[in-house]
Amino acid sequence: QKHYQKAWDEAKAKSYDLRADAIPIKHAKASRDIASEYKYKETHEKQKGHYIGCRTAQEDPKLAWAARAMSLQNDRIYRKAYHDSKAQIHIPVDAMSVQAAKECQTLVSDVDYRHYLHQWTCLPDQNDVIHARKAYDLQSDNVYKSDLEWLRGIGWLTEGSVDVVKAKKAQEILNERLYRTRPEEIKFTSITDSPDVVQAKINALQLSDV
């Protein structure tokens, strides 16, 4: 047995010589390529019949959904910088709008609108001081109300005011006569060529002939 397998053992010890164009090698390569091609096209083969009937890409629901999702994603990315920076507002202190707002605030401010007269620092029980204080209070009140003097004696009509207009609108809404039309006020005219009217005419003619 040892002499019988001597040549085989010596060949195994040296290594093996397998040619690249051997039939088993070619068979294995072909099987590998076939399996790789099948795996590569497996998803395509499964979905091959699902797209029948879509003439354009817009009619395909999957493609339309993908395009819509892509547009939304692009719009979100496009506006991301704006949404991140829209709350961070930097206005220069000398801007025209800021200056106009400051002047408007000065005009409507009650502190700058009223000019109080000076306060007396003498004895409060002196008669001349009491008389002068009353005179100055009257003068201050006159100065304070001077811009309203031109309104004194001017009449005002309530026609066109907010409350009158609101009352008129409410009256129109609640008016039953304008909201509904009574059935007896509708002019009813029968259609002369309706099927029931035509049949009645034919029956009347037949009875008349009889």
TrEMBL record:
<dbReference type="Pfam" id="PF00880">
    <property type="entry name" value="Nebulin"/>
</dbReference>
<dbReference type="InterPro" id="IPR000900">
    <property type="entry name" value="Nebulin_repeat"/>
</dbReference>
<dbReference type="InterPro" id="IPR013998">
    <property type="entry name" value="Nebulin-like"/>
</dbReference>
<dbReference type="InterPro" id="IPR055297">
    <property type="entry name" value="NEBU/NEBL"/>
</dbReference>
<keyword id="KW-0009">Actin-binding</keyword>
<dbReference type="GO" id="GO:0051015">
    <property type="term" value="F:actin filament binding"/>
</dbReference>
<dbReference type="GO" id="GO:0071691">
    <property type="term" value="P:cardiac muscle thin filament assembly"/>
</dbReference>
<keyword id="KW-0677">Repeat</keyword>
<dbReference type="GO" id="GO:0030018">
    <property type="term" value="C:Z disc"/>
</dbReference>
<protein>
    <submittedName>
        <fullName>NEBU protein</fullName>
    </submittedName>
</protein>
